[in-house]
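User: I'm curious whether this sequence folds into something compact or stays loose and floppy. Could you predict its structure so I can see for myself?
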Amino acid sequence: MDREKIIVRTSYIGIAVNVLLSVFKAVVGLISGSLSVVLDAVNNLSDAFSSVVTIVGTKLAGKAPDKKHPLGYGRIEYFSAAIVAAIIFYAGATSLTESVKEIFRPEKPDYSVVTLVIVGTAVVVKVLLGKYVMSMGKKADSSSLAASGADALFDAVLSFSVLVCALICKFTGFKLEAYVGIVIALFILKASIEMLSDTVNDLLGRRLDAELAAEVEKTVCEDEAVMGAYDLILHSYGPDRLIGSVHVEVPADMTAAAIDEMERRVYENVYTKHNIALAGIGIYSFDEKHSDLRQTVLENVRRHDGVLQIHAFYADEEKKKIRFDLVLDYELENRHERFKEIETDLKKLMPDWDIEIVPDIDV
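Assistant: Here's the prediction. I'll summarize afterward.
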């Protein structure tokens, strides 16, 4: 089953379950006079709406590329995930407001056995639904679906707290649901903010997944002509649409025809194994006769803390010129000063050479 079908089918199941739960809880809450049960019903209704948003977002994201958007509409899913997070936030804020009101205007509800059975059943249903939706979200790599699944599990906790409060109220007369509602509402708000933050990171452009980056670089280096892979950058145009670029190091004596053939092999291998299209493959040449010179530079630069990598080494003995890219750790307090320190030390070591160090980023 393809990704879109998984998301849509799972969302339809979520809508059906949440609408049924919402109807039952609303009826029970109004009959018993329980605010928490009514709020729980409203929360289920918001979950159903979240699933509708997920379906619409997935359908729009699946539109074919066109002249205005040649790389497709996949990023719409990030916006739908943000909307789902906003809906969850609204549900949490509403629950918090109503729970606070209930503290100052308490009304003792009348819980029947039927009420308790329905609320208890809702707990089990929401746990099963939450785990199912989350598993499908991971399978389809859908942040919207994963957010809906997480919300369903929070709803199960909310329903369970309602059940516990109902039992305490029925057998002891103590009414705690308003206070428990505040605690649960705060957890829901926290979860929604985390979901929204995660989606914003997707829109801004988050750091590459280290495992995926290592796998892609390994695939690139599997080619017999490639001596090293650097500067891998991936751009996300939706959860399943990654386009990237990479630089590869090759022997300096390779012909243009051989390089062209190598690039085609690398592109095909990466696309086949990882479903990633490499829009650009840059070339760094490596000349064996500069091995000792390169090793001298490497040893000197690596003495400094915070150096993650140097690559793209190039030397011109006739013009006495050396050039390479330097990657420093973002954790360094002053990366600019460390860069200047490395540059100064290297020029003292090799005063006859014109040394150009290009700052590169740790992606």
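Summary: The chain is about 65% helix and 15% strand. The longest helix spans residues 3-32.
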